[in-house]
Amino acid sequence: MVGAYKRGVKVDEDAIELVAMRAGSVRGTVVDEATGFPLYGVQVSVQNVLGNINQNTLTVETDDDGHFEIPNVFPGDCIVNAQFPHDKPRVWIMANEESAVTVQEGATTDVTVKMKRGATITGRVIDADTGEIIPYASVGTSVPNNGEVRDF
């Protein structure tokens, strides 16, 4: 049997000790990076980054003043992400260079998420062989971790 650990200290190999931790929370405001004005209707999510913690992503939507609070977050290092729901016609991306926060046991972590306007894609998709317009075609871009934009 592998020895049990209590916060990094090995205990008797025959004993199993469970240590309950109080969840924390993440609260804050989502603002326009350029103006500082709050953004409402933004989906903010928090996910614990510990590989051995199987926690779902927790998501809420900002209120009319751009505020949000996400309760019941497992303590530790977390990633905060923000985006407008896909059904809202706004093109914004997160401006924060660092979206990592550390949630303390039983405490509230405050964060300000800055977003900036992205770009709008317009045009027509045309069949290369026939020259005909392809109706209802989907076009988009993605931004991988290195910041390079690629079409898909």
Description:
The termini are far apart. A hairpin with a 2-residue loop joins β1 and β2. It is elongated and about 75 Å long. Helix content is 0%, strand content 39%. The chain is mainly β. The chain has no helices and twelve strands.
In short:
By secondary structure, this protein is mainly beta. It is built from no helices and 12 strands. The protein has strands at 5-6, 9-10, 24-32, 43-48, 58-61, 67-73, 76-83, 92-94, 100-103, 108-117, 141-142, 150-151.
List the helices and strands and how they pair.
Blueprint: E1 5-6, E2 9-10, E3 24-32, E4 43-48, E5 58-61, E6 67-73, E7 76-83, E8 92-94, E9 100-103, E10 108-117, E11 141-142, E12 150-151
Q: What is the number of helices?
A: 0
Radius of gyration: 21 Å
Strand content: 35-45%
Structural category is: mainly beta
In which order are the strands of the major sheet placed?
A: 6-3-10-8
The largest β sheet comes out as: 4 strands, mixed
Overall number of strands: 12
Calculate the mean pLDDT score and round it.
Answer: 78
Q: Encode the helix/strand succession as letters.
A: EEEEEEEEEEEE
Distance between the termini: 50 Å
